[in-house]
Amino acid sequence: MKTFAFAAAALTLLAVPAFAEPDCRAAKEVKPMWEVVKAFEEGEGATVDIAKVTGEKCYEIYGHAGKTKLEIYYDPATGAVLDREED
C-alpha cells in the first residue's frame, strides 16, 4: 500500500508544471515592448539581457541588477508586474 501511495504522489507532482507563466492573451491593446523595457531599466536600475513575448502573450524580461539575475513577467496592456523571480 505504501508503494502505491508513493507512486500516486510522484505522478501527481510530475503532472503539475514547475512554473506556470501568467496568461495575457485576453489583452486587447498592448503597450509597446520598448516602453516596458525602459520602465524595467529605470525602475529596477537593471540591464536587460533578453526581452520577449511568451507563448501566453505576456512580456518576459531577463536582466540583471549588479549580481542579481532577474526574470519578470509583465502585463502587456498595463505594464504591471505579474510575476518576478530573482537569483
Describe the structure.
This protein has 87 residues and is an alpha+beta fold. It has a single domain (22-86), classed as Nuclear Transport Factor 2, Chain: A. Helices cover 30% and strands 31% of the residues. It has two helices and four strands, in the order ααββββ. It has helices at residues 2-15, 33-44; strands spanning 47-53, 59-65, 68-74, 81-86. Strands 1-2-3-4 form a four-stranded antiparallel β-sheet, covered by helices on one side. The longest helix has 14 residues, at 2-15.
List keywords for this structure.
87 residues; alpha+beta; Nuclear Transport Factor 2, Chain: A; four-stranded antiparallel β-sheet
Return the CATH topology.
Answer: Nuclear Transport Factor 2, Chain: A
Structural class: alpha+beta
Which strand-content bin applies to the residues?
A: 25-35%
Write down the CATH class.
Answer: Alpha Beta
Radius of gyration: 17 Å
Helix tally equals: 2
The largest sheet has its strands arranged as 1-2-3-4
Please state the overall shape, judged from the principal axes of the Cα atoms. globular
Care to count the β-strands? Answer: 4
What composes the largest sheet? 4 strands, antiparallel
Encode the helix/strand succession as letters: HHEEEE
Spans of at least 5 consecutive residues whose pLDDT stays below 50 are 4-18
CATH architecture: Roll
**Quaternary class:** single chain
Helix share bin: 25-40%
Please give the alpha-carbon distance between the first and last residues: 40 Å
Number of domains: 1
Mean pLDDT: 81
